[in-house]
Specification:
921 residues; alpha+beta; 8-stranded mixed beta sheet; 5-stranded mixed β-barrel; 26 helices; 33 strands
Amino acid sequence: MFRSQYNSYGNYPPPLMQVPLPPVERPMQVSCGGLREHHHGLLVELFGRVVKQSLGRFLVLRDSTGQTQLIANNEDTNVSIRFQKMPVDSQLRVVGRCRLRPESSRNRTTATGDVEVHVEEILSVKTPYSTPAMKDVGQKRAMSTTSRSCLGITAPELARAKGSIREYFNKRKNTCGELRMDHVGMQIRLVGWLDNSQRFGRFFRLRDGTGYCQVTVETGKTNIQDALGELKESDIIYVEGTVTARPFNSRNSKSETGDVEVIVDNYKLLNPEEPYVAPAFESADDTMEDAELLMDSQNGDAEKKPEIEKLGIEKADIEKSSSPNTSLFTNRTHNCGELNASHVGQNVVICGWLGFQRMKKFITLRDGYGMTQVLIPLPKVDDVPLDSLAFESIMKVSGVVTARPAHMVNHQMATGEIEVMLESFELLNASKKQLPMDVRDFNRAKETLRLEHRYIDLRFVDMQRNLRTRSAVLMKMREYLINQCGFVEVETPTLFRATPGGAQEFVVPSRKRGHFYSLVQSPQQFKQLLMAGAVDRYFQIARCYRDESTRSDRQPEFTQLDVELSFTDKEKVMELIENVIKYSWPQENAESIQTPFSRMTYEDAMAKYGSDKPDLRFNFQLTDVTDTLKLNETLTSVYSDFASYVIVLKSPNNGFPTLLKDSVAAMIKNLTNTRLFVSKLKEPTIEAWTESGISNALSTEVTKALAENLKLEQGDLIFLGIGQKTKTQELMGRIRSVIIESLQSRKLLSQTGNGGKHFLWIVDFPLFTRNDSDQLVSTHHPFTAPHPDDLDALRKLENLDSIRSQAYDLVINGQEVGGGSIRIHDAALQKFVLEDVLSIKHEHLQHLLMALESGCPPHGGIALGIDRLMAIICNTETIRDVIAFPKGLHGKDHMSQAPIELTPDDLKLYHISVDQEAPEN
């Protein structure tokens, strides 16, 4: 039994039946853009995409030729209801009667505006939500809405095509393998060859490099039928025809193109010796359409972007103007990451490392920009010695870009639409067979080996991406500061004199006996001197050095964005840095940066998180229970500036595994001026806990008050710190960190917490803090200006521990990535801080003090740690993954094994003697 009374047979013989049926009117298959007034009264079959839905009985159906308005019959409520529920972008196939619209409803802006189709039956529907497994009722397969053109010449076509025939493949509009039901009604032109084994009368199989389709010669056109029958399989022909749906009893469910056929209107046997000539049946409309699409692309018409993609050369020309040419001044034409469908048919030269080979037929070349597949044709196989050639050898390949068939496109590769058919090959440098490490993501070497052979490690995709991202970010920083803000980039010396009071510096010997340089920790003094010298807007990407241990977020030599400007204040400096970061942040994530950044005082940060660089992705705030603990006066009298904080873990986070116990035990071994209590409420009641062993240390009154104020429950795990305020806050901050690490290791907490990038300014730092010897030292550096409200107290030397500074730190996800301050620009105040507060001898700072006395403007600045910032941007666990040649543990260069011992002659030259018996640090 047939699905519909409107089954179309074309010129095929009807199925045999015992009883003759009355003649059935067969619908005419037409395109959505092909209906006109003279079709009035005709029964038609349409297939297209729903692009507009009006309430009631109307739909607009569109295909590649245009659009037609559909209307549901008043008497057919089923069709009306289905129209109302039809989603936009549904694939719809209908049969209906073409009618003239009422004169008052005609649309003069569209070619089909004089007619409409009164739908009598909906044959098939595929909604945009249908899965590939869902099939339309009565169909052998679901309609393909994802088939795509594979325009441009493919490797099998290139092997067959000679001379000018390549142009026909390159300039075609459709391919054999892409035809589906949504092409029905289209006038198309195909290039290909006929299968010798698939010729049955007037039915032929036309094949190209993307697949095949059936082409049919209409009855009566025996001249075309006979001519096609005499063609050899090696002949290339150009076919013009109309795509139609096959009768249902003749469809081929095993072929992707089995629902359709092409009715041949004309054909041409192509001669490779003749120059390419646009076919006579090439319509001027195509040229106009391409020109309009190109104009739309330049005007930003997003709806026509898929069609613009098919133009190839035009698209390449558009992109060429905005992309840098990475092959300028080289012997290649393109890099291995830039070839795409727009390059199909072009002769190219690419160079790179041999990354992979398969079947001695396919190889991949890789460079710093990407990877390209190269196809080696059979006659060229012996020219490429793959048996003896080691991976990572450098090769140069010349060839022709060919399109991969649609079903072979690799969407995981930027160059996955194409491959290069090799014409010539040159080995530029052979690699040895066994390298220390393979460039394979699934088998990455350990970091020590990676650092030792960094030149190989840099070939990995992630390292290439990180370094190129770093370059782009630094360029954008320079662009914003110079072009938009008028800053001047000034290089300052690396060799300077020792600066006591800061971090440990590297000492550099000179040939003058007993005289040494120091590598600068930062350009701090130089940038202040520039302010005195009227360079009022300075920056540089500065190299800095500190002789300190290597960690995941620090190493002995590092890079910072150093910025200083005159006549400013901290609010303006922070706003400047917010704009620099937002401007330079990679565009794909820039929209997630919201300015202004959050602010938090140093006091609040320490009280809530126990750290001046809190990671706001995680909650677990400290609870201040100082007033509760003060109920035990004996306890509080032991400590000056007493404070107490607690963290309570409730189910399911209340476990206390061995690893967490060991971490806490190691942390509290050598505590001074603070204590930690850890208690798990295992008692049967809260009352029992308040009278348990912990009450002996805290008192029953305190434990009862804690249970009530904290709303403790049975099973809760409590971490309680008491003691001197600053020490206790720092202790609880470390406890918070190990709790988070423990919960992450047990999969009770995400590695990224609540996710995202949390930018935070920490402000109102104390100007001075006390070291382990209870001496006042600068919290940041001695050139930091005091808060204006605390200036009088400073001059009177009153409450020095509570004086605030005009310093500010930028924190991102718990990482301090920048710090700065407004500087002291008054020489008298600077001398006062050095002499009377910090007791620092300042003979080594006479040049700076004299500069301040010479008329130095108010100024301030900041330094951003580029390595840390890039590690956050690139989502790496260590800054070593964003540095080309980083240092390893203890500052060692694993590649060159530096630092090394000097020869006796070198030691003599620099007047240095080495104490061989001194213990190594």
